[in-house]
Design brief:
2 copies of one chain form a homodimer.
Chain A: E1 6-10, H1 14-26, E2 31-35, H2 39-48, E3 53-54, H3 58-62, E4 67-70, H4 77-84, E5 93-96, H5 102-111, E6 116-117, E7 120-122, E8 143-146, H6 154-166, E9 170-173, H7 176-201, H8 209-214, H9 220-226, H10 231-240, H11 242-264, H12 268-287
Parallel strand pairs in A: 1-2, 1-4, 2-3, 4-5, 5-6, 8-9
Antiparallel strand pairs in A: 7-8
Chain lengths: 301, 301
């Protein structure tokens, strides 16, 4: 019997509560125990009936779980792992959902000697936070990347992959460091840029903040969605994936300076060539089912 | 009788064709004549029945129009204006829909001496182009900014404002140079950054383009929508609003470097403070009806 019958989730924010809902919807025989550091969140999760049990502490939640998933900010992983270490059942698999994998793998391995650790990252989310923001279909057709260390048995990786497939995701296996370089491009840099441009726009002298808000439909409003993402989660991502983010930021800045020079020199050809190339990337993303074809993301007009 | 009874639109892309549809839907008594430089577009507009007449040339389209709206890329305004100059009816108002206003005001004034010129900018759009991409409700609850020169009679400004109100927009009047600084923030810089980051991401060594596409749901895909906007239109915007864009780009780069340093020094407090502040801006944009409250822009999951 490969499938997990007892699962624990620690942390019931957007991702943890979405996973709980997906388990309820698609794996109804799984016995699900959850916990969260916040008493308010625990009470809300109980009221929403998202799990079979809502434990007061992380340790109590994991006691007989075959799979434990840590859905807390990346910077909190080590502490939570230490907190549950003594309560884990023999043979339990510990995984997570964090956006950075090399650091999490190191932190969990250090805190949980002898435990099977398989980090995971479902590449999915919205700008909302908390247990009310979750929904069961969040992972449908999104990729979940597993980054097992070499010593983990292949069947354990397959087993965890099957679990994510069962809740709707597509599964890929990757080296943790490569994951961190890929996600620096497809997620971390976009968030950093969005936070930065929204910060810049709200702090100018010549243009007031109320003008920025009023005329945001010109493109700016798109950036504010990403820049409304959870502040603590994202603080931890940048601190934990520092090297890859800084390296990529250097590359981005180079490219931006080249574009700046094209504008200064009125080099329309360079601009048009880039703007034509980028259009094709959008097409590929839509063709591969990673975004909607509807204009303006299907926003209502 | 203040309202225009005969309107001409030159250029039937996303904006021109949306305006034609909005006029048809909301101002059915207006006699609408349109044209476009492309024979294919003219044929498509005729097949879609978007206007009373589809003229072969811009001059023929404007002959008896009381209001002429140029919906062409900003860099093409001067040539189109020269093209229609001899055919304009006495008292005709010439306006436009371009994203840059000081340059357009200067170009139209130079090309059309003695003509009433009132530049306008409906702050609305999608990433799609062409006559099939337009829709009648594009301007609903979006702002349309008029930038009349001081010598234009106030009643003419009101008359044009009433026209835009009738097709669903909210109207604001502003100095052309101030418009260009405001839109540099809310539209031009966001587009430039989006084009730049998509260009960077598609041209790396450590991460393949197929990985970028596959894992784009981490945030990157949002930028690809804006970076799929019309290449010629946007080339012209950056060339025509060079000073304001370069000044703002300098400011953005400063802020980004500060953020880069915060990451390098593991200064989590600075990161979290910014990420918390930007979340509030999103809230204001939603409260003012300039974006949807639905998570992830209401994308289907």
């Amino acid at each position: 019997m490969l499938a997990y019958s007892r699962v624990a989730i620690i942390g019931m924010g957007l991702i943890g509560s979405s996973l709980a809902r997906a388990i309820r919807a698609r794996l109804p025989t799984v016995r699900l125990t959850v916990s969260d550091a916040s008493p308010e969140v625990r009470a809300r999760v109980a009221a929403l009936d998202l799990a079979d049990d809502v434990a007061d502490g992380a340790g109590a939640a994991v006691i007989d779980a075959e799979l434990v998933i840590l859905a807390v900010p990346v910077g909190a992983m080590a502490a939570v792992a230490r907190d549950i270490a003594a309560d884990l059942a023999p043979g339990a698999v510990v995984s997570d959902v964090g956006s950075v994998k090399a650091r999490v793998l190191a932190d969990l391995t250090d805190a949980l000697p002898g435990v099977i650790v398989i980090p995971a990252h479902p590449v999915a989310g919205t700008e909302k936070s908390g247990p009310d923001a979750g929904f069961a279909s969040l992972f449908a057709d999104r990729w979940c990347i597993l980054t097992p260390p070499p010593q983990v048995d292949a069947w354990q990786v397959t087993r965890l992959g099957d679990f994510w497939t069962a809740v709707g995701a597509r599964v890929e296996v990757m080296d943790a460091h490569h994951h961190d370089r890929v996600l620096a491009v497809t997620s971390h840099l976009p968030h950093l840029i969005a936070y930065s441009i929204v910060g810049t726009a709200s702090d100018l002298e010549a243009v007031t903040q109320s003008e920025v808000i009023k005329y945001s439909a010109g493109g700016f409003r798109d950036f504010t969605r990403i820049a409304a993402s959870d502040p603590v989660m994202w603080r931890d991502v940048f601190l934990a994936n520092r090297e890859a983010v800084l390296e990529l930021l250097g590359r981005f800045t180079e490219d931006l300076v080249a574009l700046q020079r094209a504008i200064r020199w009125s080099d329309g050809e360079t601009l048009e060539a880039l703007f034509t190339r980028t259009r094709a990337i959008r097409r590929s993303i839509i063709d591969q089912g990673q975004d909607t074809e509807e204009p303006d993301f299907g926003r209502k007009h």
